[in-house]
Amino acid sequence: MPKLVASNLSHAEFQKQSTTPEPTSPGTGKAMPLGRDLDAARKAYSKGDIEALVSSHDNAIGADEEHAGEAGDFIKSLVFGGLDGIITTFAIVSAAVGASLSKKTVIVMGLANLIADAISMGLGDALSEKAEVDYIRREWARETWEMDNNPAGEIKEMLELYEAEGVSHDDSALILNTMAKYKEFFVKHMMIVELGLQTPDDDANPWAKGAVTFGAFVLFGSVPLLSYIIANAAGADGGLLFGLCIMFTAMAIFLLGAVKGKFAQSNMIEAGTLMTLNGGLAALASYLIGWGLGELVPEST
């Protein structure tokens, strides 16, 4: 069993050194280039092309692989915040139109819902992300402390987990005793295998994600309202006014759905179509509820 020396670094210093998302070169701390073109590997997999898979590794040795984890998180907040915003606001407009409410009422209800929901979504995203990051960092600090003070116990825990997955005792011991020489990497690996937690970046900013969600909700949620207001100002009325609102909203939903499909590595047309159907069903349900209540509930005098 390897003997590990407890670190003299403070938790903040240790975490700053050990949460780098990319592999680092010993002694320099700089990101090491990875010998793979990730985008090419994904394309090879989608086509079942083994030669392209081999080429994606061989031809990219020494080239930096682009890691877009942080950008991906912001894009996710942008897409889902935008989808929630546009579908929710369009549902409100549809319900108001179905109930034959005045144009002023449609705009007031839509705008009030847009801002209120955007604040709720933005804060909710930020607070939930912050709670998750704080929890993971507390677990990181605990696992680091345990590794500093009882390395043999931590290795034993991992040994049992490896054996539960079918790895032999001797192979498990060889792997883990070797890995334990590199404490930071061992703790990261332990966090994933034992707790199922991915260590967050040291500069993870939940409030930035919340701001992106808020902005996306307002930006895309404004599409139904703006199209309704502009069409009304242009003289459209009745069915034409609502029809133009439907057209512009559907285009925006399809675009967001296609972007979502791109980053999910699925068919963009299919993703856009499904998201448009989703928005359409939500709007139809809202319209029918508004129409039904408008017929059943008498107007107050």
Overview of the structural elements:
Helices cover 75% and strands 0% of the residues. The chain contains 11 helices and no strands. Helix 5 crosses helix 8 and helix 5 runs antiparallel to helix 9 (206-233). The longest helix is centred in the middle third of the chain and has 47 residues, at 103-149. The relative contact order is 0.14.
Question: TL;DR?
Answer:
The protein has 301 residues and is mainly α. It contains eleven helices and no strands. Mean pLDDT is 79; it is low at 1-33 and 61-68.
SSE diagram, text form:
Elements: H1 11-18, H2 38-47, H3 50-58, H4 69-98, H5 103-149, H6 151-164, H7 169-179, H8 183-195, H9 206-233, H10 238-263, H11 268-296
Helix pairs in contact: 2-3, 4-5, 4-9, 4-10, 4-11, 5-6, 5-8, 5-9, 6-7, 9-10, 10-11
Descriptors:
disordered N terminus; 0% strand; elongated; 301 residues; 11 helices; mainly alpha; single chain
